[in-house]
Amino acid sequence: MASISPPVCNFGWKAPQFKLPDVNGKLVDLESSMGAKGLLVMFICNHCPYVKAILPRLIADVTELQALGINTVAIMSNDPADYPEDSPENMKKLSEELALPFPYLFDETQQVARAYDAVCTPDFFGFNKNFELQYRGRFDESRKETAPDSSRDLFKAMKQVAQTGHGPKAQVQSIGCSIKWKA
């Protein structure tokens, strides 16, 4: 499985609209997802070893961010025909097993991933309350294994966004598995 990195942050880029079903079929949109201080939109999936390596810490961090006014949504855009572990049924199972504290949305047409120019899982987009991109970087220095004493890059960046409306100028690209596009 080859790893891939997304481009660096395009500060001020406006969040594209979305309206996607969560694991229970409820439609979730961009506006209703926004927190008082910002929104973290992340592209994840069930099968990716990079996502699996960070998921427990990611859940803890986004829970902490919620208290700071940053909401989170996760979007799964992979083609489940080729990756059955990423099927809506398995998304629901994962969401329930881990009690995910954020909506887990299915981008069946892959149009949202394309609108965001998402390239990998995980791919993080941190927006301020004005829907302006302020962070597009890594979760921390972990790869497929947890890095000891990790730097909490994503958490620190989104905490800064909550406090100032601006993300850090220095950002390190995320790394992960490529989005599994439909043929």
Task: Tell me briefly what this model is.
This protein has helices spanning 30-33, 49-67, 88-98, 111-116, 153-164, and strands spanning 3-4, 19-21, 27-29, 38-43, 70-76, 104-106, 120-121, 123-128, 133-135, 176-178.
Q: Care to describe what's here?
A:
The chain is an alpha+beta fold. The chain has a single domain (3-178), classed as Glutaredoxin, CATH 3.40.30.10. It has helices at 30-33, 49-67, 88-98, 111-116, 153-164; strands at 3-4, 19-21, 27-29, 38-43, 70-76, 104-106, 120-121, 123-128, 133-135, 176-178. The longest helix is centred in the first third of the chain and has 19 residues, at 49-67.
Please give the count of helices.
5
> Given the C-alpha coordinates, what overall shape results?
globular
Report the order of strands and helices.
Answer: EEEHEHEHEHEEEHE
| Widest sheet, order of strands | 6-5-4-8-9
CATH homologous superfamily assignment: Glutaredoxin
Return residue spans where pLDDT drops below 50 for at least 5 consecutive residues: none
What structural category arises from helix and sheet content? alpha+beta
The amount of beta strand, in percent, is 15-25%
Query: How much is the radius of gyration in Å?
Result: 15 Å
CATH topology: Glutaredoxin
Total domain units: 1
CATH class: Alpha Beta
Query: Largest sheet, if any?
Result: 5 strands, mixed
Q: Based on DSSP secondary structure assignment, what is the total number of beta strands? A: 10
How much helicity do the residues have? 25-40%
Task: Report how far apart the termini are.
Answer: 18 Å
